[in-house]
Here is the input.
Amino acid sequence: QLVESGGGSVQAGGSLRLSCAASGYTYAVAWFRQAPGKEREGVAGIYTLDGSTYYADSVKGRFTISRDNGKNTLYLQMNSLKPEDTGMYYCAADPVGATYGGKWAVPAKYRYWGQGTQVTVS
Here is the structure.
């Protein structure tokens, strides 16, 4: 089960931190976002075994994905937000390794999804 929190409305240049409570083992977890009329896109992902992280080019240098294994929580720190960052943000979990080989940004590889949290940047 995945439960996101931390979304909201912010002015351009501001920051938000999203959280996702995740129970159980995950091979990889990631954040996706979807704007109205657009496809869901991978924002950032992290692999459990080696802690490697990956980012979409559009957010590199501004967003940071991290996890607290003790709290079973995934985070997305978003800085220098832009209006184009607006959308519904989802966390997703791959428990079986379907994202092996760098496929962290492929939505179909994830078995579990949260309900989403809205981020609006004006």
